[in-house]
Input
Amino acid sequence: MADRDGAYRSEQPAVRFARDEDGAIAMIFALCASVFMVILGCAIDIGKAIHANQKLSSAVDGASIAAAKALKDGNLSAAQIPTLARTYFDENVKGSGNYADVSSFDVNVDEVNHQVTVSVKAAMPTSFARVAGINQINLPKSSTAVFAVRDIE
Output
C-alpha cells in the first residue's frame, strides 16, 4: 500500500483487514435485518393474540348471558348453570381454530344479587416471539351478566 510519499510498505494482513471498510454495509444490513425479523414475528404474534382475545371475550360474554337468561327463566338450577355456561363457551370458541389453551373455567352464580360471572384463564402460545423469550401470552377474561327476576312492563 502506498503512503503519502508514494512509497510502498508491507503491512501485516491483520492491520490491512482492520483498516478495510469494504463490505461494512453488509454487516450492518445483516444486524438490522435480523432485528427487523424478530420485530415482525412479534407483530404477527400480537395480532394473533388480539384475535384470540376478541374470540375469548365474545365466548365468555355469550356464556354469561346464556347462564343469566337460564336462571331468569327458571329453566335450570344454580347447580346446572356451570355446565350450560361451559357448553356455550365451547361452542362459541370452536369453529375456526384453536386460539388459546384454556387452563381454568369458573362460573360464580350469585342469586342474591341476580348475577352470573364467568371467568376464564387462557394462554396463547407464541410462534415467533419465542426467539425473544416470550413463550406465551396470557389472556384472562371475565364477564358478569345481571338479570332481573321479573320484567318491568
Notes: DSSP finds three helices and four strands in the chain. The chain has a mean pLDDT of 84.
